[in-house]
Amino acid sequence: MSLNLKIKGNWNEMKGKLKEKYGELTDDDLAYAEGQEDQLLGKLQKKTGAAKEELSKFLFDKDGDVK
């Protein structure tokens, strides 16, 4: 099932913000290939224990932000 999601903004900037918020993430965890958004979301959810909705908002919503 594809979520048809698109990563917002600059991916390198997003990776930095994710590492800042979730210190346990590694570069391997944040490996991203276009079209693999749903796999990335699942991997991040499993690694961080964060809610799918929280990660989705941060990664894919224009108004999502790290708090």
Can you walk through the features of this model?
By secondary structure, this protein is an all-alpha fold. The chain has one domain. It has three helices and no strands. The protein has helices spanning 11-21, 37-48, 52-60. The radius of gyration is 11 Å and the shape is globular. The termini are far apart. 3% of the residues are buried. The mean pLDDT is 80. This is CsbD-like domain-containing protein. InterPro entries: CsbD (IPR008462), UPF0337_stress_rsp (IPR050423), YjbJ_sf (IPR036629). Pfam families: CsbD. Belongs to the UPF0337 (CsbD) family. Residues 6-56 form the CsbD-like domain.
Proportion of helical residues: 40-55%
Total strand segments: 0
The number of distinct structural domains comes to 1
Radius of gyration using CA atoms only = 11 Å
Oligomerization state: single chain
Tell me the span between the first and last alpha carbons.
29 Å
Strand percentage, roughly?
Answer: under 5%
Structural class: mainly alpha
Tally of helical segments: 3
Order of helices and strands: HHH
> Major β-sheet, in short?
none
What number is the mean pLDDT?
Answer: 80
Sum up the overall morphology in one term.
globular
List the uncertain runs. Answer: none
